């Protein structure tokens, strides 16, 4: 299964963070090039597919910096803030609820919280000069949307706990430039809580029962979707479009700033160290996420 749109945007943001760290900004706001030191050529005997050793604390520091950057995004690359992420996408669909009720639903004004809170599994990470595989865990991701069900308006949400994301990237060098050739992966979640507003307007009890049942079924539905046993056409189209957007955005950045594998690795270190030309967020501009406190209190 391809990764979800917000997670693909995280992948794009992570790579573009390192792209941007190779460039600075002048006092008048214009971008200017910052020289990246040349690296020692890789010995001819080194396999392009051989796993590369990495320093876990260094990678920890990089992802910690990415978490802060997600508050700001990278508007210059077309990546908005992902903490929270706001989507203007409007979903229109209909379904039969076990032949009990025909539901027409319109959902819009999506807001996703929690994408900046994640950990990575160092033991299962693998990096080579042609591919990378990393597992991320998001303890709590909650998405809100304004919904209309059969004419009844409300605010609905889904809260997903302990999401595990396997992100795979394939890339290659051509003419001393790095290109992403494939993005993919899978997603699983431990538990979910769903509140679909106005599901049964005349029965609060029935609405609670069905919301609970839908939430409990989500991990199974995600597993079926991963295995290709559950076909959701509009979701497939959305994922395909998100994949194209992420790959195109990343490759444009890599090409524009003339980054190959080694220069990208150096840029990642610069970004982690917060050098003056790394284009990180202004710490004073990164506000505390009040929603996180709301989640911890468990009030809905």
Automatic annotation (TrEMBL):
<feature type="signal peptide">
    <location>
        <begin position="1"/>
        <end position="24"/>
    </location>
</feature>
<dbReference type="InterPro" id="IPR038606">
    <property type="entry name" value="To_sf"/>
</dbReference>
<keyword id="KW-0732">Signal</keyword>
<protein>
    <submittedName>
        <fullName>Uncharacterized protein</fullName>
    </submittedName>
</protein>
<dbReference type="Pfam" id="PF06585">
    <property type="entry name" value="JHBP"/>
</dbReference>
<dbReference type="InterPro" id="IPR010562">
    <property type="entry name" value="Haemolymph_juvenile_hormone-bd"/>
</dbReference>
């Amino acid at each position: 299964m391809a990764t979800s749109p917000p997670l693909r945007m995280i992948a794009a943001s992570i790579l573009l963070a390192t792209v941007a760290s190779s460039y600075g900004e002048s006092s008048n706001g214009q971008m200017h090039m910052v020289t990246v030191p040349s690296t020692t050529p890789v010995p001819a005997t080194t396999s392009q597919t051989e796993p590369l050793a990495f320093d876990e604390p260094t990678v920890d520091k990089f992802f910690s910096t990415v978490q802060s950057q997600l508050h700001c995004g990278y508007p210059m690359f077309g990546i908005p803030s992902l903490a929270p992420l706001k989507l203007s996408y409007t979903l229109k669909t209909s379904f039969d609820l076990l032949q009990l009720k025909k539901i027409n639903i319109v959902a819009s004004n999506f807001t996703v919280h929690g994408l900046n809170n994640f950990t990575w599994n160092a033991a299962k990470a693998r990096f080579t000069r042609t591919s990378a595989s990393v597992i991320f865990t998001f303890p709590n991701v909650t998405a809100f949307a304004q919904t209309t069900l059969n004419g009844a308006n409300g605010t609905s949400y889904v809260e997903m706990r302990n999401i595990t994301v396997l992100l795979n990237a394939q890339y290659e060098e051509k003419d001393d430039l790095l290109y992403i050739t494939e993005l993919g992966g899978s997603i699983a979640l431990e538990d979910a809580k769903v509140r679909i507003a106005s599901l049964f307007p005349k029965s609060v009890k029935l609405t609670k029962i069905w919301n609970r049942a839908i939430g409990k079924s989500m991990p199974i539905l995600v597993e079926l979707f991963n295995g290709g046993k559950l076909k959701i056409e509009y979701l497939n189209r959305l994922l395909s479009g998100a994949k194209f957007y992420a790959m195109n955005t990343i490759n444009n950045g890599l090409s524009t700033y003339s980054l190959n594998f080694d220069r990208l690795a150096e840029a990642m270190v610069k970004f982690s160290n917060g050098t003056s030309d790394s284009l990180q967020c202004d710490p004073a501009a990164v506000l505390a996420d009040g929603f996180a406190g709301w989640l911890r209190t468990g009030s809905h």
